[in-house]
Specification:
heterodimer; A: alpha+beta; five-stranded antiparallel sheet; three-stranded antiparallel sheet; 8 strands; 32% strand; rod-shaped; B: alpha+beta; four-stranded antiparallel sheet
Chain lengths: 172, 171
């Protein structure tokens, strides 16, 4: 009996097809691994940004603000801070009051407060409510102030669990 | 079954696409992808390693702000007593495994802190210097000058790094 297919017109064997599929899958898997590797690299790269870029900038700002102050005071509440009510000396505070001597002999108070994901800088008038000026950072997940060995410690917690603490004194 | 896998056109004898050439092409593609993957991995490591180094520099610099500020602030009398945090050289005070901060992911980084204070040679002998007590020719106001030094040591990738801050205190 004569076969319906000539030698040149026969189809692929199952083995050929299996090898072709396996090769295709291997190439696809390798390509996916490559893409995944690049995403992982990007994730690690971005995660390092807070400590490498943001934290030193925050420290530079804080050094200027704290170093020129005459004295500082810690509070846990933004409403207590301007009047000086309920100051804290132990534990971590979220509000820092700084007092500056002005060239004309008067004093000017300022306030740093961590609220709603931002470390905000306020000017505190002698009478009236503090006025928000600008935000030192919006990238930190927490900022706390404390006193360690008589020094002002500013602890920054980043979005990926990183923690860095800067220390300073007034009138540097 | 044969109908399903049948080619539309019969293969010509001597065609430039010989049977099995696709296998070679796919193998070459896999090889190229593997090499590309390794090159990209090496590139990623090359980019991340110095950033990891910078990250630990940032943390160690931050911790040293404590040492510098503490050395500036500590009362002079406390600094020069036997119980001083900065003992008189060659004595040193060593604090091991100080947590200097946490890297992304919350992993703590530890370092060792060595503290010592070095007298100025022009101090009186009783103040650690070389000038005879009562000799007011070279130190008429009996100044006491100390170099207060903190040394931080930490490891990155098996290498030990040393960083120091020195504050001059006088009275």
């Amino acid at each position: 009996m004569k076969s319906g297919f000539s030698k040149s017109r026969r189809g692929y064997t199952l083995i050929e097809l299996s090898v072709a599929i396996a090769c295709g899958l291997a190439a696809a898997a390798l390509l996916m691994a490559l893409v995944n590797q690049q995403f992982t690299f990007l994730r690690i790269y971005v995660a390092q940004n807070f400590l490498i870029r943001e934290a030193p900038l925050i420290n530079a700002h804080m050094n200027r603000l704290i170093g020129q102050a005459e004295w500082f005071r810690l509070h846990n509440s933004i409403t207590d801070a301007p009047s000086g009510a309920n100051p804290v000396t132990a534990g971590n505070a979220s509000v820092l009051i700084l007092n500056y001597q002005q060239p004309n002999g008067t004093r000017q108070a300022a306030m740093l407060a961590f609220q709603n994901g931002a470390l905000n800088y306020y000017l505190v008038p002698v009478a009236g409510a503090p006025t928000l000026q600008w935000a030192v950072t919006r990238e930190a997940s927490n900022v706390s102030f404390s006193v360690v060995n008589g020094l002002l410690a500013v602890t920054l917690t980043g979005p990926n669990g990183e923690v860095i603490t800067y220390y300073g004194t007034t009138q540097q | 079954m044969g109908m399903i896998f049948r080619r539309k056109r019969p293969r010509k004898t001597g065609s430039r696409f010989a049977r099995g050439s696709a296998l070679i092409e796919v193998s070459m593609a896999l090889a190229v992808l593997t090499v590309l993957g390794l090159l990209l991995l090496k590139g990623s490591i090359n980019a991340l390693y110095p950033r990891q180094w910078t990250l630990e520099q940032t943390l160690s610099d931050a911790y040293l702000t404590h040492e510098k500020a503490f050395a500036q602030r500590i009362p002079f009398n406390t600094l020069t007593t036997a119980a001083s945090p900065w003992p008189d050289q060659p004595n040193t005070s060593v604090v091991n495994n100080v947590e200097i901060g946490r890297i992304p992911g919350g992993t703590p980084i530890f370092a060792d802190v060595i503290r010592t204070r070095i007298p100025d040679p022009n101090n009186f002998i009783s103040d650690g210097g070389t000038v005879n007590d009562g000799d007011t020719a070279s130190n008429p106001s009996r100044m006491k000058i100390w170099k207060v030094q903190s040394i931080l040591t930490y490891q990155i990738g098996g290498r030990i790094y040393v960083k120091s801050r020195t504050v001059v205190r006088s009275q």
